[in-house]
Design goal:
heterodimer; A: ABC transporter involved in vitamin B12 uptake, BtuC; B: alpha/beta; Rossmann fold; 2 domains; globular; transmembrane transporter activity (chain A); transmembrane helix (chain A); cell membrane (chain A); ABC_transp_permease (chain A)
């Protein structure tokens, strides 16, 4: 029997968690002598009330959708892919190589090429941990974390020694050629007399992220492979008995997961920076874990959670711009939300479940 | 000013952008953070000095991510901040794109040249100051071996190293200079532990004066030299006070002056390239009560003589960045 109705599981639990995080954040802000109400208003205003604010919110959200989906797909096979960060970094390398060394005539072709490049590099980076898990039983959590550091060092080496722009002090590649630049929301939605999304980095890859959401939904719930992934996730012995190869599912799932993480680079590297910089992911790989947890590993949930985290990132930037709240405390606020929605999920869920059970017993009587 | 007032002010400024400007200056710190005891902190000091003297206020932000560089620039510009000062070469790329969009706003960038009609590019002759402290290091050293620890391995830091080596060799042509860089990434600006390890390694090779040009990493270098009983040389800010009697001197790069001047001139900020060197007080070595006992008359006389010669142009210190090579090793 279900312990509580679906709507409570999908909506009420995250909402209550958010509320608790908000209350704690308010106390923190109050404790350093700032006004929590004004701070919240500032966040909403800066992130949602201006088109440029939305431009940033959606830009961050795009990153989190990709990394959130990456974690979700792996999680359906009960594989905990902590390596989104490294896979996205390598994805950035793939995107950069495609953009720099292939003379693209137009961005529409370049984005397809870059997506393939990013996905292949991301997937390739996930392959080694997947293989080790499938064939040798090395736990994927440990290996993917270690691969994050290796990815960072690889990128560091390549940027400092090979790809660096000549005469530059910044360890970054030269700018990508003009033809590969993706249209931003400003280019797409501004009319002659009203300029929307001015100066904000949101670009066409947001729609790529939406496609990815649909793709993941189709994959997990509408294909044979998705069924096998879920069956394997629920019980690997039962899956084995039904003739599903554990090795194949582990590797294929991780490859898809890595490819999704790698796609994030289309947004950051090709869309925003238009060159490959040293830290192209900025922690989005790790935020993806929280997004997937909060979104219950469903593409719709991931999309909403990614929007929320996008809002937190952009709102946090606004706080840093216009208040005296130090940036470390903004990180604290973001961390509180992750803590409550991700790690302390059961703190809200268990009492709520008990509440619903008690309620039902009363009704049954 | 309470938060609410600030918020209203910001909202009003956004509403008015393009029209009447508030003309409040703004300062953007690089990812290293405001309190690095060195480069960024010097900038903050200059801004504070301006605020105290003029009674004005300035906006500031410590960045959290790369995407915020452009965001901070645009938001401050749209809110009417003028001039907008930023610290560090990493802003160069972004500023060259943003500056043309706000022709009425003046920008000042430190350590980088950006060619735009509304940008003041402040660059320093670090090689001249490094030459002076190099001379002092050679005179203070008993072993004839001195050390240099750089932050991130970039041409700018090699410029420091090259000037330093030239100064050392000018005093003692047989001296050995051990050079180490902390790393190849921006993380090298804030790695005091590695700075400490490199210092110990250099001491093991006989160095008894170590010059740190490494931002926050230098804190570890200065600490270790003080613990091991040898001398160190600070950088950017006057760091003599960190370990009184243990820091020989500091190569002062007056980032604070650059920020102060920019904020003081306000909207009348003179644009173009502004080279700060020994001649105009942008570069100097530090002498105060904390290191007075370490600097004897002969040393002071020699360094001041060299300083005067550099200022008059009689003595040319080779600039590594002019041809990406150094005549002295």
């Amino acid at each position: 029997m279900e312990k509580m109705p679906k709507w409570a599981d999908a909506v009420l639990v995250p909402l209550l968690s958010l509320l608790m995080a908000a209350i704690l954040s308010a106390i923190v802000i109050f404790a350093i002598g700032e006004d929590p109400v004004a701070a919240f208003k500032l966040m909403v205003d800066g992130a949602l009330m201006r088109s440029a604010g939305w431009g940033y919110t959606l830009y961050y959200a795009t990153n989190f959708i990709f990394t959130g989906l990456a974690v979700s797909v792996a999680f359906h096979a009960r594989l905990f892919n902590i390596g989104g960060e490294g896979q996205a970094m390598l994805g950035g390398l793939g995107v950069a190589l495609v953009c720099l060394y292939i003379p693209w005539p137009h961005w529409t072709l370049a984005i397809i090429g870059a997506s393939i490049g990013g996905a292949i590099f991301g997937a390739a980076w996930a392959f080694a941990p997947a293989y080790l898990q499938a064939k040798r039983g090395s736990h994927v959590v440990i290996t993917t974390i270690m691969f994050n550091y290796i990815a960072y060092s690889v990128l560091n080496y390549l940027l400092v020694n090979v790809l660096i722009a000549k005469g530059s002090m910044d360890p970054a590649t030269p700018k990508f050629p003009e033809a590969t630049h993706l249209p931003t929301f400003r280019d797409m939605f501004s009319t002659a007399d009203t300029i929307l999304f001015r100066g904000s980095p949101a670009n066409v890859s947001f729609f790529l992220a939406l496609f990815a959401c649909v793709f993941v939904w189709l994959l997990i719930w509408r294909t044979r492979l998705g069924y096998e992934i879920r069956a394997f996730g629920h019980s690997d012995t039962a899956a084995n008995y039904a003739g599903i190869s554990a090795v194949r599912i582990t590797i294929v799932t991780m490859l898809i997961s890595g490819a999704l993480a790698g796609l994030m680079a289309v947004n950051t590297t090709q869309g925003e920076a238009e060159r490959l910089i040293l830290n192209p992911t900025e922690g989005a790989g790790f935020i993806g874990i929280a997004v997937a947890l909060m979104g219950r590993n469903h593409p719709v949930g991931v999309f909403i959670a990614a929007l929320l985290f996008g809002f937190l990132y952009q709102g946090g930037a606004e706080l840093a711009l216009w208040t005296n709240i130090p940036r470390e405390l903004i990180v604290v606020i973001q961390a509180l939300v992750i803590l409550f929605t991700g790690a302390l999920d059961n703190m809200v869920r268990m009492p709520l479940e008990r509440l619903f059970l008690a309620f039902r017993r009363k009704e049954a009587r | 000013m309470t938060l609410m007032q600030k918020f209203l002010g910001a909202a009003a400024a956004v509403a008015l952008s393009g029209g009447a400007a508030l003309a409040e200056p703004a300062l953007i710190f690089d990812l290293g953070g405001k309190f690095d005891k060195s480069f960024n902190e010097a900038a903050f000091g200059g801004a504070q000095r301006w605020a105290e003297e003029s009674g004005g206020a300035f906006r500031e932000i410590e960045l959290q991510s790369e995407a915020q560089r452009e965001q901070a620039l645009r938001r401050f510009a749209e809110a009417g901040s003028n001039p907008i000062v930023m610290t560090g070469f990493a802003f160069g790329n972004v500023l060259s794109e943003v500056a043309p969009d706000y022709p009425d706003t003046k920008f000042a960038i430190i350590d980088m040249v950006v060619d735009a009609p509304n940008v003041r590019s402040v660059v320093f002759n670090e090689h001249e100051g490094s030459y002076l402290v190099g001379m002092m290091a050679a005179m203070a050293s008993k072993s004839g071996t001195v050390g240099f620890i750089g932050g991130m391995d970039i041409p700018l830091i090699r410029k420091f190293a090259c000037g330093y080596v030239q100064g050392v060799k000018a005093v003692n042509p047989d001296a050995t200079v051990i050079q180490n860089m902390t790393g190849t990434t921006p993380a090298a600006w804030n790695d005091p532990v590695k700075g400490s390890e490199l210092t110990k390694a250099q001491i093991g090779q006989g160095a008894d004066v170590v010059y740190a040009a490494a931002g926050g990493t230098g804190v570890g270098v200065l600490q270790t030299t003080a613990d091991e009983g040898i001398l160190s040389i600070g950088v950017d800010s006057n760091q003599n006070y960190l370990h009184p009697g243990k820091v020989l001197t500091s190569m002062m790069k007056r980032v604070d002056n650059a920020v102060y001047e920019a904020m003081k001139s306000g909207t009348d900020l003179e644009t173009g390239i502004n080279v700060m060197g020994i001649a105009n007080g942008g570069i100097d070595y530090a002498l105060d009560e904390h290191n007075a006992a370490l600097v004897d008359e002969a040393m002071k006389a020699a360094v001041d003589a060299a300083k005067a010669k550099i200022a008059s142009g009689e003595l040319q210190v080779h600039d590594y960045m002019s041809d990406n090579s150094c005549p002295a090793e």
